[in-house]
Predict the structure.
Amino acid sequence: MIVIGGSNSQDLARKVARKLKANYRDLVVRKFPDGELYLRLPPKVKGQRVVIVNTMHPNPNDALIELFLSWHTAKEMGAKKVSIVVPYMGYLRQDKRFHPGESLSNHLVASLLSPDFCLTLDPHLHRIHSLKEIFKTKAKHVTANDVLGDYIKKNMKGAIIVGPDGESFQWADHIAKRIGHHAIVLKKKRFSSRKVKIVVHSDVPLEGKTVVLVDDIISSGHTMLEPIKQFKKMGVKNIYCMCVHGVFAEGALKKIQKLGAKVLSTNSVNNPVAKIDVSSLIAEQLR
C-alpha cells in the first residue's frame, strides 16, 4: 500500500501511513502561471493499492481538482485499487434547489470523487442520510464522536456537553452518553449565514461549571459566539468550543477566542487548534 498526501493533508497522511505501516509519498503539486494545477504522483503505483489523502479546506476548488486529477492518474498508471480519504468534504451542504438554476453541488462533486472507495469524516448532510444516495461507487463516512468523547473524558472532568442547535445535538448526545455526562441542546434561529439568535434553556445548573459546545463544523463561528456570550452572563466557569472540522472562516477562531472560550478541533483540517488526532480512526477504515 502507498499513502499519498495531498497539499492540504500531508501531516495527517503521514500519520495514517505510519498507523498502516505503509509507504508514504507526497503528491507533487504546483501551479502554472495561469493558475492551472500541475500534479505528479510517485512513479511506482502499478499493481499497488493507493490511498490519496486530501481535505477540502482551505482552497476547496483547488483541492477538488487535485483529488479528481490524482485519483484518475493513479488509475491510469495501473494502480490495483484507488481510495481517496477526504477528511473534510466540501460542497455537501448544497443539496436542494431553492431557486431555478441553482446547482446541486453535492451530487456533482460526488461524481468527481468516485474512485474505488471514498472515505470522509462527519459529512455535513442535511436532506440526505448517507453518501450512498449521491455516490455511484463505494463511499463511507465515519464519525469522530468517540475521538472527541475520549478527549473530553480525559481532559475535562465533569463537563456539560452542549449542542448549540438541533442539528448538532446528535454529536452532543452521542458524546455525552459515551462519557456519562449531561447534554443539553440550545435553540437556534438563523436569519442569515452571519446572523444567528440562540436561546439557552437548561434544567442543569450551569453557574461555576465547565461547558463544551460541540458541533461537526465551525465555519463562520456565529453559532458558537452567541451561546458563549450567554454562558458568560450565566456564570459558567470554563467554556470550550469543540468541533470535528475547524474551518474558521472570516476570522472565526480569533472572534471565539476573544470572548474567552478555548477552542479545539480534530486535524481533519489544518489549523492552530487541531489538537485531536483522527489518523487512527481513518487507518482503521483502510485496513
